[in-house]
Amino acid sequence: MRLLTHNMLSSNIKGVTNGFPLLIEAEKVVEKAVDFNEDFLKNMFAKIEWKALVDASKTMGYAELPDNVESSMLDSDEFLQKFHHALLELHLEEGALVCPETGRKFPVSKGIPNMLLHEDEV
Amino acid sequence: MTSRPELQAPPEIFYNDDEARKYTSSSRIIDIQAKLSERAVELLALPEDGVPRLLLDIGCGSGLSGETLTEYGHQWIGLDISESMLSIALEREVEGDLMLGDMGQGLGLRPGVIDGAISISAVQWLCNADKSSHDPRLRLKAFFGSLYRSLARGARAVLQVYPENLAQRELILGFAMRSGFSGGVVVDFPHSTKKRKEYLVLTCGPPSLSSATPKGKAEDGESCSDEESSGDEQNQSVYVADRNRPRKKQKLNKKGKGREWVMRKKEQMRRKGNTVPLDTKYTARKRKARF
Description:
heterodimer, A: alpha+beta, N-terminal domain of TfIIb, four-stranded antiparallel sheet, 4 strands, B: alpha/beta, Rossmann fold, eight-stranded mixed sheet, about 35% helix
């Protein structure tokens, strides 16, 4: 699972009001090279919750992202490369996602998060 | 023996390892899936500016439909309830992200982040109640509600469905409209039993010119003409449903009942023996507008 998906996911448990961002418990992180596409990054930038992305990439062992960003930084190629790497190339292979409110763990195995809820959580 | 998989077992059980492998090794199914997803992307009508979008594939299965999205250069997130299908998708090394989840429990995505959603032959599963806790209505509501929230405004969702009958079609479409989508059903090849394919084309937001439902495809590859779809009810291939029902017609007669009517009613009440206020010059007189 890439951090792109992590940035979109929020906890869906009944009664949870703020299920974003899910905390990451990383056991195994892999990197896979993906084609760089500037347009996609610029398009996604507005939709990304930056703080969640920075925190998530730190728990995955990548601390290159700046804490504060503004849209003018999108012109810098160096920044875009880092953004690209964090967003699309870091994969959480094994570990868990943890709901920030209830502490419920969603296990991640082989890169697939199991987001199935129990009956009493729907 | 029925041929509808929906009637045989719940999806996470029906698509076991055997079925998942069969599904993905049959060249016929691969071909059909690819065509369906190509058509779905066409109906999504994303702006043609070459910018990759973030799409959602609901019921992605082994990633056959996702591969089409990758071919178009988009990034996608796939959701499926069958672990076996997802592990086949892993073997096939699809490029999108996969997620094990139940669409009937809601999608669990942040609001307004997805640029479009497709779903190939999946949504009709929601009409089944496979567990005692399942209520198709609640599940459809949760699904369409969360889909509406996660889509960006003006984004489309194209859901190819195989409804079992008219009631199911109405149920699915009804819940889509109630969650705020506008749009309708596009039927490709309406005259062929086998080739007939239905797509729910839903747009996030109120109906507008840009959200007008596209035409279905006819046998000769051209779109159904207007005459054909409006001339005969049986042949109708495209219909647009609007979630805004016409308001109840307001009474044109604003004058009210009048003094005569009030006097008659008062007389009636008196005859019944009720206490009725005296008739004065103020009885049934209209209040000043300033009041």
